[in-house]
Amino acid sequence: MELKEIKQLVKMVETSDISEVEIEEEGRKIRITKRFPSSNGEVHFVSAPQAAAMPPVQMAPQTMPAALPAEPAAPAAEAPKADNLIEVRSPMVGTFYAAPSPDADPYTSAGSSVSVGQTLCIIEAMKLMNEIESEVSGKIKEILVQNAQPVEYNQVLFLIEKS
Amino acid sequence: MLSCDLIREKSGATIFGNNVFCLMEVDSTNTFVLNMARSGAPEGTLAVADFQHSGRGKRGRQWFAPRGENLTFSLLLRPLVNIEYVQKITLAAAVTLANTIEEFFRQKGWDLPPIELKWPNDLLVDGKKLSGILTESILKDKEVSALAVGIGINLNTEIRQFPQELQNNVCSLTDFVGQRIIPEELLALFLRRFEQDYEIWERNAYRDVVTQWKNRCRQFGKKINVITADGEREALFQDVNDDGYLLFKTADGKTERLISGEINALSD
Fold first, then answer.
1. Which helix (H) or strand (E) holds A59?
2. What is the ipTM for the molecules in this complex?
3. I need a labelling partner for A22 at 20 to 30 A (CA). Which of A71, B207, B220, B235 fits?
4. What is the mean pLDDT of residues B193-211?
5. Cβ of B244 under 8 Å from any chain A Cβ?
6. B195 Cβ partners below 8 Å, 6+ apart?
7. pTM for the predicted model, two decimal places
8. Cβ(B48)–Cβ(B21) under 8 Å?
9. Residues of B with CB below 8 A from A127's CB?
10. What single string gives the DSSP state of each residue in B113-181?
């Protein structure tokens, strides 16, 4: 199995619901385990005993941080006044589009319910259209930008009331 | 319809070109591969369509592609680096595509004038559009969970078959050689080159992309029309910065950057 294919496997595990995969091929065994399935999909490599003769997969530490010690929970929300109010910020500089194309309906609107994974908007830069997905379920409290407006990195786009 | 077997056989690529879908008709190959991505499709998944009934250019603009005559496809990527770097893939794909087409012509012993790039990623020959690229991604904060590079190349449509109003602005590869080009062969070479280049970009965080892109641009210092949501204005093409943004000089001498929008050449 080539390095590239292993990288592919790692990515597949990262982006899937699979928490562990084990493959044996030509005397080498590779196991990819996702340590925190519910977090950012961090994975680590275990080089199986059968593979002792082979160097362990070298790219592992570089691409995948070793499993982290259990981190304390994220600090409590800084704004106690509205700890169920989530700010959706722009991950990049670009242009905000509320709809997939000029004549289509907007992805969402103030007062609408949204679920995890639902597309909220597009941020475009250099003919790269980026669908921004909601990471929470809830209700759109406010949309703070206009369609076709330029946005800066980290600018707040939506306020969502988390359900 | 294109032959998936032929693409696989010719490409010899490890990742790109194994999971291939050859489609008669689809709404858009980008939408198709992004939907596949949502169901867990691996990086390198490729969709090629004879006909896209909602094939898009920028912001919903239609892409003219008669059934089966042009090459339209999308490649699914799952980049590991963050969007601030990955966004330059939109320039990088144009560089690799231009290199591939020129290499393909060299291999065949055919002549082709040099391919130039128009910001951000149109391929031009003699100032006429040969290919367009539209990239779409799904973001979870700054992480890219899936990205589709959608490419359309005027391959076997002769220019006289294009609508009259487009004929002065477009060109097609078949017209340079006077014969039909086998789409699978060109696509397979692209997959091989893209796989090599992509691995380098991901490793060095897309560092050299802008330099390579600039080597293929002939618009520096030229008069351009800058078109944005606010309207059109004349300017001078100055540079492309490290992020891939266009820098232009306005009529009152100020330098501004263009991140979204397009430019057209103006005669001096």
1. helix A59-63
2. 0.93
3. A71
4. 96
5. yes
6. B13, B14, B15, B16, B44
7. 0.80
8. yes
9. 58, 90, 120-121, 133-135
10. PPEEEETTTEEEETTEEEEEEEEEEEEETTEEEEEEEEEEE--S--GGGS-GGGTTTB--HHHHHTS--
**Chain A partners within 8 Å of B244 (Cβ):** 126
**pLDDT (tens digit per residue) in B52-105:** 877 665 555 555 666 668 899 999 999 999 999 999 999 999 999 999 999 999
Query: Which CATH number describes the domain made up of B220-265?
Result: 2.30.30.100
* CA distances, A70 to each of A35, A39, A66, A74 (Å): 10, 11, 12, 11
Instruction: For residue B246, list its beta bridge partners.
Output: B240, B258
Q: Are strands B46-52 and B128-140 parallel, antiparallel or unpaired?
A: unpaired
Residue of B133, B128, B131 whose CA lies nearest to B169:
B128
CATH of domain B4-213: 3.30.930.10
Q: Which amino acid makes up residue B186? A: L
List the domain boundaries for chain B: 4-213, 220-265
Residue A159 has pLDDT above 70, yes or no: yes
